[in-house]
Structure formats: C-alpha cells, structure tokens
Specification:
The protein is α/β, with parallel strands linked by helices and about 140 residues long. The chain has two domains: about 60 residues, 2,3-Dihydroxybiphenyl 1,2-Dioxygenase, domain 1; about 70 residues, 2,3-Dihydroxybiphenyl 1,2-Dioxygenase, domain 1 (Roll). It contains three helices and eight strands. A four-stranded mixed β-sheet has the order 1-4-3-2. Strands 5-8-7-6 form a four-stranded mixed β-sheet, with helices on one face. Helix 1 packs antiparallel against helix 3.
C-alpha cells in the first residue's frame, strides 16, 4: 500500500500562491524552497503535503481540462482549528492576504464552529473548530 498521499493543486502563479499561504500561517516543505515550478504546502501536525503546480504543469499530469473554480467546486479542503479564536484569526488573515471568505465564521450545530474561504485561484477551504464534548454523537 502507499506510504504517503500528495494532493496536487493547479495555481496560476506559484509565487503569489506561496505568499498567500505563508500570510495565512502555512509553511512549505524545504525540498522545494528554491523551486519556481512547485511548492509543497505543509498541512497539519502529520505534515500532509498539498503540491502547488503551475496550471500547465498540472494539466500535463492530468491530461484533462482544469475545473473552472468560478463556476463550480471540484474539492473542498477541510482543516481543523484548535479554537474558535483560531478560526476567526485565520479568516482575518485570509482577507488581509487577498483571499475570499464565502462563509463567515458561524455555528454549524452543537460544538462545531467554522468558516469557508477561497484561495487566490478559487480553490475552496473549510476551517472548523470541533468541541467534541458538545457535539451530539449518534
């Protein structure tokens, strides 16, 4: 079975995308730190990688048309937060970095608080804080 999972994501401008994600608190894998062709966005404590590729490079891998993020959503990346305040802070950072908030922070039922934003290329992200002690378990 596989050892790792890499999610590949097309972006229009690697440098602008790196600046955006750095501004909202993400880090990058050192393996690609000097590359103009790829960036490894490190997510979470388990260091999952989302690989950012120029659209032409990404399209050469997929042999398929790119999704139009202005018209539809192909995937929703969901990341967790340690607190409600962390959700609010990330939303403020997204706005300051030029991203778009499509769902302001709000309650999503007992124990769940979150928001949604789009990065510079229109890819959609959720950030959620889940208080398991308050969530109803079935």
């Amino acid at each position: 079975m596989s050892k790792e999972l890499w999610i590949n994501l097309p972006v229009k401008d690697i440098d602008k995308s790196k600046s955006f994600f750095a501004a909202i608190g993400f880090s990058f894998h050192p393996r690609h730190e000097n590359s103009k062709d790829v960036a490894g966005l490190v997510i979470g404590e388990k260091n999952m990688l989302i690989m950012l590729f120029p659209e032409a490079t990404f399209q050469s891998f997929t042999q398929n048309e790119l999704a139009d993020t202005k018209r539809g959503t192909e995937v929703l990346f969901s990341i967790d937060a340690r607190s409600r305040e962390e959700v609010d802070e990330l939303v403020n950072q997204v706005k300051a970095a030029g991203g778009t908030v499509f769902s302001e922070p709000r309650e999503h039922g007992p124990g769940m608080y979150g928001a949604g934003f789009a990065d510079l290329d229109g890819h959609r992200w959720n950030v959620l804080y889940m208080d398991m002690s308050k969530m109803q378990m079935e």
